[in-house]
C-alpha cells in the first residue's frame, strides 16, 4: 500500500454505495485523480463538506487497486462559497471544472499548468472583479493554449501572414481582411480562407487577444455585443479541439 499527499481542486463527485463518494480531483503534482471518500455521506462524517466541487483541499491518500482512497482532507480554500447564491458565477465555475477534466483525460498524468490555471480562474471568479463570462473565456483560451491549441490571432493560421496595422497604425482595420476558421486554427487571410469561415468583428478578435494575454483593462472596456460574439467563437473552437461538448456551457449561455 502506497501513501501519498497532494492538494487539488474537487471537480465532481458521485455516490458510491450507501455512504461513500467517488471524488474526481485535479491535483497539483499527480494530475487528475479518482478516489473514494469513505463514509462522507453520513451526517457525522469527518470531512464530508471538504470534498465538494470547487473546494481546494489538502489530501492524504493511499493507492488502491482501481481507485485511491482518501484518508484525510483539509480545506485550503472553499472557492464554491461565493457561488452558492450567484447563478452566473456558479454555472461559469461548473464549466471551468468540466473543462479541466476534459483537458486531463489520462489519470495520474501531471498537469501542473492546467491545475494552476483552474486555481487562478476560480480565484478570479470568486473575487468578482470581472464579468464571469469574460473570466470563463479567458480561462478557456489559456487552457487551449496550454494544451497546444492556441488560436492564431496575430497571423494567418495557414500561411503565417501577419495581421499588421493600416497606414494610421490601426490594427482593427487590418483585421477586417481576415476571417476566423475553427478547423484551420484561428485567423485566415483572404488567400487561405475556406468556405464556412466566420467573419467576426475586428473588436471581437482584439478581445480574444486581450483575454489570452490577461489585458483586463481592454477586456473590461469591450462592448457586450463583441463579448457575446467572442464567447460563441471560443465555445465553438474549444469543442472542435476537444471533440466533446462541454455540457455546462449551455447553462452559462442561459445564466
Compact overview of the structure:
This protein has 255 residues and is an alpha+beta fold. The chain contains eight helices and seven strands.
Please state the overall shape, judged from the principal axes of the Cα atoms: elongated
Mean pLDDT: 91
CATH superfamily of the largest domain: Recombination protein O, C-terminal domain
The gyration radius over C-alpha positions equals 20 Å
Report on this structure.
The protein has 255 residues and is an alpha+beta fold. It folds into 2 domains: 1-78, OB fold (Dihydrolipoamide Acetyltransferase, E2P), CATH 2.40.50.140; 87-255, Recombination protein O, C-terminal domain (de novo design (two linked rop proteins)), CATH 1.20.1440. It is built from 8 helices and 7 strands; from the N terminus they run βββββααααββαααα. It has helices at residues 87-102, 112-127, 132-146, 171-175, 202-213, 216-221, 224-242, 248-254; strands at 3-16, 20-27, 32-37, 55-62, 68-78, 179-181, 186-188. The strands form 2 sheets. Strands 1-2-3-5-4 form a 5-stranded mixed barrel. The chain has a two-stranded antiparallel sheet with strand order 6-7. Strand 1 (3-16) and strand 2 form a beta hairpin. Helix 5 (202-213) crosses helix 7 (224-242). The longest helix has 19 residues, at 224-242. The relative contact order is 0.12.
Amino acid at each position: 500500500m502506497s501513501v501519498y499527499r497532494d492538494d487539488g481542486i474537487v471537480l465532481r463527485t458521485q455516490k458510491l454505495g450507501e455512504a461513500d463518494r467517488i471524488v474526481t480531483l485535479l491535483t497539483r503534482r499527480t494530475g487528475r485523480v479518482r478516489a473514494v471518500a469513505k463514509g462522507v455521506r453520513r451526517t457525522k462524517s469527518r470531512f464530508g463538506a471538504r470534498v465538494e466541487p470547487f473546494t481546494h483541499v489538502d489530501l492524504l491518500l493511499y493507492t488502491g487497486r482501481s481507485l485511491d482512497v482518501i484518508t484525510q482532507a483539509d480545506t485550503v480554500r472553499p472557492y464554491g462559497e461565493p457561488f452558492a447564491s450567484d447563478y452566473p458565477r456558479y454555472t461559469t465555475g461548473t464549466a471551468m471544472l468540466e473543462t479541466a477534466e476534459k483537458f486531463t483525460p489520462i489519470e495520474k498524468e501531471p498537469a501542473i499548468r492546467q491545475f494552476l490555471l483552474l486555481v487562478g480562474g476560480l480565484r478570479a471568479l470568486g473575487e468578482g472583479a470581472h464579468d464571469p463570462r469574460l473570466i470563463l473565456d479567458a480561462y478557456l483560451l489559456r487552457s487551449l493554449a496550454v494544451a497546444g491549441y492556441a488560436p492564431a490571432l496575430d497571423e494567418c493560421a495557414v500561411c503565417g501572414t501577419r495581421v499588421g496595422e493600416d497606414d494610421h497604425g490601426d490594427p482593427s482595420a487590418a483585421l477586417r481582411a481576415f476571417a476566423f476558421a475553427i478547423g484551420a486554427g484561428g485567423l485566415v487571410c483572404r488567400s487561405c480562407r475556406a468556405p464556412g469561415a466566420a467573419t467576426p468583428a475586428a473588436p471581437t478578435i482584439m478581445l480574444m487577444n486581450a483575454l489570452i494575454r490577461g489585458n483586463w483593462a481592454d477586456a473590461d472596456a469591450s462592448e457586450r455585443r463583441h463579448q457575446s460574439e467572442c464567447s460563441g467563437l471560443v465555445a465553438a473552437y474549444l469543442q472542435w479541439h476537444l471533440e466533446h461538448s462541454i455540457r455546462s456551457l449551455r447553462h452559462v449561455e442561459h445564466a
